[in-house]
Amino acid sequence: MLIDTYGRVATDLRVSLTDRCNLRCTYCMPEEGLAWLAKPDLLTDDEIVRMVRIAVCRLGVTDVRFTGGEPLLRPGLVGIVQACAALEPRPRLSLTTNGIGLRRTAAALREAGLDRVNVSLDTLRPEVFHTLTRRDRHRDVLAGLEAAGAAGLTPVKVNTVLMRGVNDDEAPDLLAWALDHGYELRFIEQMPLDAQHGWERSGMITADEILAGLRTRFELTPEGGTVRGSAPAERWLVDGGPGRVGVIGAVTRPFCHACDRTRLTADGQVRNCLFAREESDLRAVLRSGAGDAELAERWKAAMWGKKAGSGLDDPAFRQPERPMSAIGG
């Protein structure tokens, strides 16, 4: 198992397939983009599948989520999903995407074995979408969401980040829209993972503020009592259910004590925490000819040293050098 010194066991693997993205969200990267990883530095499709196989078959991982950057930009995505779906035991497979390419790929991904998707959408207003992403692709995201639902990639979850003075007035409208379309909405506190390192705690819309905004229109009841476990989102029944909404307070309501995640970057680095400043290089070991057993042991060693928490509550906290687009969600 991927266990650490605090007894936490990682069963959820996040695999970044690329650091590239076709949006330029203001809370993630500058308008001109970033210096992307060189192709030779990226794990090949076969290498990714091998690492997932080791995680699932040797290390007890049960859930695999493909992320980016934007994972739909990975040419071999469907084949990667198909190969991972054929593993025994079969892991649950999901994808986090901006949704732009889902209209043309949702059916193929479902047929390959993908179970569900999370789609990022921060606003219902096209002009605000352009302000936040610097691209006119709002209609494409809505079409991608519709295609995901039609293909059976359910439950379709929508991830939303609220920005003060930009879209923070939309929370109730977004929830009403999600309920109407059968999507499960999850609000996420803005995290200090932007490439510009411009995040400020005072500018972040907190979980408490999000909930207060939603309660101006809806009655929210905690789902399943007060025990969250390893789930990042606190979930609430809306007006008694069955509709629900999630709030991920990664900054103000951290869930580090029960974290069950391990991360593999597109260039083959293991990260034992989203906010870690250290990584463990498995790509070099893999390409040196190491066997599966050695790679598994290296992965276990990387997770053993995981810290108790993210350190966000420490005044001396420093952002990781890599931005979210290069780490994977």
Layout of helices and strands:
Elements: E1 2-3, E2 9-10, E3 12-16, H1 45-59, E4 63-67, H2 77-85, E5 92-97, H3 102-112, E6 116-120, H4 126-133, H5 138-151, E7 157-160, H6 171-181, E8 184-188, H7 207-214, E9 220-222, E10 234-238, E11 244-248, E12 261-264, E13 269-271, E14 280-281, H8 283-287, H9 292-304, H10 324-327
Parallel strand pairs: 3-4, 3-12, 4-5, 5-6, 6-7, 7-8, 8-11
Antiparallel strand pairs: 1-2, 9-10, 10-11, 12-13, 13-14
Give the helix proportion (percent range).
25-40%
Please indicate the count of domains: 1
Q: Report the order of strands and helices.
A: EEEHEHEHEHHEHEHEEEEEEHHH
Structural class: alpha/beta
Structure report:
The chain has 329 residues and is α/β, with parallel strands linked by helices. It has a single domain (2-327), classed as TIM Barrel (Alpha-Beta Barrel). It has ten helices and 14 strands. A twelve-stranded mixed beta sheet has the order 9-10-11-8-7-6-5-4-3-12-13-14. It has a two-stranded antiparallel sheet with strand order 1-2. Helix 2 (77-85) packs parallel to helix 3 and helix 3 runs parallel beside helix 5. The longest helix is centred in the N-terminal third of the chain and has 15 residues, at 45-59. The mean pLDDT is 92.
